[in-house]
Specification:
The protein is of the alpha/beta class. It contains 17 helices and 15 strands. The protein folds into two domains: 197 residues, Glycogen Phosphorylase B (Rossmann fold, 3-Layer(aba) Sandwich); 164 residues, Rossmann fold (3-Layer(aba) Sandwich), CATH 3.40.50.2000. The strands form three sheets. It has a seven-stranded parallel beta sheet, sandwiched between helices. Strands 12-11-10-13-14-15 form a six-stranded parallel beta sheet, sandwiched between helices.
């Protein structure tokens, strides 16, 4: 016999840490008819009692009837920002940056993050977040495929979380997980997408299940002058989009204070080594670290302080050459990574969207080794950054060549005058549009209701 489950709409309490302390409760609907009747009767009695109390408090001739009560301010509309995957932290970091902007500039919105993977605690910080299991990460655990029942459980938990939150708008980031889209549609929520430029846009739009035409709002977190072809394809597909400029986290602390916390003196040259190209939990990231430290061990400059940021999802080991000549600090995870990057003189990283924006925001020199990705042209991004920032494409990973390039970058020093900030006015346009959508009712597209079901 199948068991029908519904979500108890108990109010979700937010703790002082910003995390959600209580989860949606699944209620068994297979209770006996007698018990159900008793519950309904009790609910009716309570409703009658409350109505009587209201009637007696506003009887004719009372002062409360002649003096109008002040209108209560409208409560902030809750929106959910979904960060897909639990392999890289790029989607999560970008959605966190957007949530912080909305919390500061749009009092009419109450943004809540819906994420997965171990990076949630490190990245979201003070932003309220519900952490769900990640199907992508579960499928890579111990190199074994995830059990099909796990996907069913994650699907049910996602639907339960959205049902409890009752968001007015759901914002996706670049990739739309069908489970979230269907659950949001069934709840009548409007939907938006933060669409990072991707080189397969033509093929993506040609897919019959492409979600872009179903979105109520599309905004691109980049500069349209840098991606004219991407903009043209959106126009040809009749998909209007707001170009917001880069969306990334920014430093909150003074660089001098950050260096002091890390034990780095003002005279030392601070070098930060991190991955930052997506999928930072495998052999690819370890290889990047090994190349970097093999080269740094050959750099003869004195007063060098190296900070290695592993990231919360990095699992393998890192090979530190014997007799490494420089001061070394290892950070397992960096909750305030933008602060660390803003205090650096040199950053060695991959070519991920968030990593390059956060690394160059403070004016540090950046040596970037782009990773190969199917949908993300990191090499083109690094070359574009080299035009406007103190960013260089890694010429070679051979220890001798890389050591020489590191030495030249250290001599050139940081360029603090090139520090960048997000485009506040463009992001405000997105915030205002989200407020408008939050006070509209959504509709369930044909077929979505039939596609979503528990098994």
């Amino acid at each position: 016999m199948s068991v029908l489950l519904a979500v108890n709409h108990a109010r979700v309490q937010e703790s002082s840490t910003g995390r959600w302390s209580s989860w949606p409760v699944l209620v068994d609907r297979t209770a006996s008819s007698r018990e159900t009747t008793e519950r309904q009767g009790a609910a009716v009695e309570l409703s009658v009692m409350l109505t009587a109390m209201v009637d007696t408090s506003s009887s004719p001739g009372r002062e409360s009837d002649r003096v109008p009560r002040p209108r209560e301010p409208r409560a902030a509309a809750r929106i959910v920002l979904h960060a897909i995957n639990g392999i890289g932290a790029g989607h999560l970091a970008r959605q966190t940056a957007l949530a912080r902007h909305l919390r500061a500039r749009q009092p009419g919105l109450d943004p809540v993050m819906l994420g997965s993977g171990p990076a949630v605690d490190e990245v979201c910080g003070e932003v309220p977040v519900i952490e769900l299991p990640s199907m992508g990460r579960a499928g890579r655990y111990r190199g074994e495929p995830a059990h099909p029942d796990m996907l069913t459980a994650i699907t049910a938990m996602t639907h339960a979380a959205l049902t409890a939150l009752r968001p007015r708008v759901v914002v996706h980031d670049t990739l739309v997980w069908p489970t979230v889209e269907r659950a949001a549609a069934l709840l009548g929520a409007r939907q938006a997408i933060c669409l990072r430029p991707r080189r397969d846009l033509a093929d993506y739009l040609a897919r019959p299940d492409c979600p872009l035409p179903r979105m109520d709002l599309v905004f691109v977190p980049d500069d349209p002058a840098v991606h004219p072809e991407f903009r043209q394809r959106l126009d040809e597909a009749d998909i209007p989009a707001i170009w917001t400029g880069p969306v990334f986290r920014t430093a909150a602390s003074d660089p001098a204070q950050t260096r002091q916390k890390l034990g780095v003196s003002a005279e030392d040259r601070m070098v930060v080594v991190m991955s930052g190209g997506g999928r930072g939990n495998g052999a690819e990231a370890r290889e990047h670290f090994d190349h970097s430290f093999a080269a740094l061990s050959r750099v003869a400059e004195q007063g060098l302080s190296v900070v290695l940021v592993l990231g919360p999802m990095f699992r393998p080991w890192v090979k530190i050459p014997a007799g490494f000549p420089h001061r070394l600090t290892v950070l397992r995870g960096a909750r305030n990574l933008p602060d660390v990057l803003s205090a650096a003189d040199l950053v060695i990283c991959r070519g991920g969207y968030g990593s390059l924006h956060e690394a160059t925001a403070g004016g540090a020199r950046v040596l970037a080794n782009p990773a190969q990705r199917d949908f993300d042209d990191q090499r083109a991004r690094v070359e574009q950054f080299a035009v406007h920032h103190a960013c260089e494409l890694l010429q070679s990973t051979a220890p001798e060549d890389l050591a020489e390039q590191i030495g030249r970058a250290l001599k050139a020093g940081p360029v603090r005058g090139l520090a960048t900030r997000p485009w506040t006015e463009s992001l405000d346009q997105v915030g205002e549009r989200l407020v408008q959508l939050a006070h509209q009712d959504g509709s369930v597209p044909r077929g979505l209701a039939e596609q979503f079901m528990y098994r």
